[in-house]
Amino acid sequence: MGSLIEVNGLCKTYVVNKISNNVLRNIDLHLQEGEFVTVMGPSGSGKSTLLYTVSGMDRATAGEIVFMGKSYTQMKDKEMAKIRLVSMGFIFQQMYMMKKLCILDNILLPGFHAQLKDRKSVREEAEVLMRRLGIMEIAEHKVGEVSGGQLQRACLCRAMINHPRVLFADEPTGALNSKAAGEVIRELVGINREGTAIMMVTHSARVAAASDKVIYLIDGHIEGEMALGKLQDEADLTQRERQINRWLMEQGW
Ligand SMILES: Nc1ncnc2c1ncn2[C@@H]1O[C@H](COP(=O)(O)OP(=O)(O)OP(=O)(O)O)[C@@H](O)[C@H]1O
Ligand SMILES: [Mg+2]
Q1: Ligand 1: which of 12, 16, 18, 21 to mutate, judged by most atoms within 8 Å of the beta carbon?
Q2: Over 70: is that where the pLDDT of 94 sits?
């Protein structure tokens, strides 16, 4: 499979009160079409910043990010916004849904905005997704009237409405109990099997066990990588989780 995203020498520096903080230092990584990669590492190691810069939500300080053959440095903000809308999906905890809209309208919004299909087809697509994720009954509920797990699944529907090439997920199970987390992971695996690449951040080895590869970040650079291969059977999760835990201990987790 071909490369979807290529990152070379990525650096990100934040300057706060004239003090610069080199949050990402010389990161190289490749995300293949349909690949499922997890980023792990201690708090403050730069995981979220990596997702923000690779997804073009935030600009890099140095280095190159190429998405489907085109470098971000060659793109104006408007072109990048279009790519994010059409080719990328996001599940970020900080990106709340619109509080005044019901769940269904939140899911429809990026679909209507992208104008890839007529409104009727977008509605049908939203229904398919909501049924699949078991949240049809909360379609008319406001964001404040649903559980954390339901909201997370609604975010997943919204992220998938335009059938993106890649899904960026920052701790998609962070606020969930293990049952709800298991359901979200099962959905992510299903979405990935249908061909959407995933770049996910998690603190949980259990969640990481569903991915093809784990990258360990420390102080803004890649300390190690572990290849797991595609998950064939859910029964393999426990053994893969143990494998990741052993590896994380070696990395100094
Ligand atoms: N907008 C910003 N301005 C200045 N500094 C920032 C900004 N965003 C993040 N940082 C700093 O960058 C570093 C990395 O933050 P980041 O959020 O990427 O960490 P993380 O690995 O996602 O941590 P966590 O596991 O706690 O979510 C931290 O030292 C943080 O304070
Ligand atoms: Mg983070």
Answers
A1: 21
A2: no
